[in-house]
Structure prediction request, 384 residues.
Amino acid sequence: MTTKNDLLKTVFFDLHLKKGAKMVPFSGYELPINYEMGIKDEHLYCRSKVGLFDVSHMGQAELVAESYDDAARAIEAIVPGDVLKLQPERMRYSCLLNKNGGIEDDLMITHRVKADGSHVVGLVVNAARKQHDYRYIQSHLPENIDLKIDEERALLALQGPDAEKVIAIWCGEAVGIPYMSEIETTFFDVPCRVSRCGYTGEDGFEISVPNDQALRVAEMLLSHDDVKLIGLGARDSLRLEAGFCLYGHDIDETTSPVEADLSWVINKRRRKAGGFSGAERILTELEDGPAKRRVGLLPSGTAAPAREGALLFAEDGSQIGVVTSGGFGPTIGGPLAMGYVLSAYASLGTKIDVEVRGKKYPWHVTEMPFTPYRTYNAKQPTQH
Prediction:
C-alpha cells in the first residue's frame, strides 16, 4: 500500500503549497489537483488567459546513436509513426505498441537538435508508465542505441490564448515557432528546450529546464499578471473537452490505435511497409474496420454527468459499450463523455442511452473535439 511518505515530489512542491494547492496522489507523485480558484475557474482561466502546469512527473528521455536515422529506425519497430522522415526540430504524437497491436503508452517523439549540433530522438512519456516504458523500449533496442533517461530536468506547460505573448518576454526565440516543433534556446539566461505543444486544445508551450533552475523559471512566468497555476483537475477537463485520450482510461494495452480513433498516427509509408509491433492486427483493422470505436458523447437533454464505467445501451436495450472518460465541461457548460461503442453505433448522431446511478439518459454520438482547437497555425500571424 502506497502511503503519503512514499509519494515522489517535483521540484515545485513547495511552490504548490505556497500557492494554496490541494495536493493529491497521482502516478506515484504528490501533485496539485487545484489551487484557490478551484477546478472550474482554473479551466476557464486557461481558456481565456494563460495557465501554468507542473508536468515534471512526465518522463523525459533520448535515444542516442551514431546517426539520427539509426535511432529513428529503432523506435519505428515499436511505434507506427514516421520517425525516420521527421524533420529536425519537429515532433510527433505516437503510440508505443505491443505485439498484439495494443497501446503500451502514448508519447511525444521529437527529432531533437542538441546545442552541440548532434541529432537524437527525444521522448516524453506518461508518468504512470515511464518506468514500464523505459524497460519496454530498452528491450527492443539494438546494442548500438542508448536510451538516456533524464531525471535532472523539470517540465512546465504554459497553455492558453496569450501563451506566446507571455513567453516572448523571456524567450523571444519561441515566438512564431510552428505547432509541434521544438528548439534548444534560453529562457532569459537559463538553457532550456521549448516546444510548441500541449494537451489542452489551446496554443501553448512546454518548457524543459534543469531542476536547479526550474523554480526560477516558474517564478518569472508567474510574475506576469495573466499567468496562474493550474492543477490536475482542470488539466483533465481541458483535455476531455479537446477529445484527447488519457492512458489507462481511454487507451490501454488491449486497445489499438484504430479502435481509439488514432489512425492518423499511422502515416502512408508505415501503412504500406508495416514493420512495427502489432502491424498485422492494425493494418487489418484499417482495411476492414475495428469491432469497436472511441466516440464523443453529449446528452440529448438534461442529464447527470456520466463518469468512467457508465454503461452504454442501444435503443433496443442491448449493451453496446462503456464510458472511459466523462464529467462536466466548463467551456461547453454541461456534461460530456468519451467511450467505446460497437462500430455499428459509432456514426455521428446515433442515439445512445447512458446509465447513470441506475437510470438511463438519452445521449448521442458527436464530433470531437467538443470545443474547437486553438493551437497555433504557423501559416497565420500570431494574434496578440
Q: What stands out?
A: The CA atoms of residues 39 and 234 lie 5 Å apart.
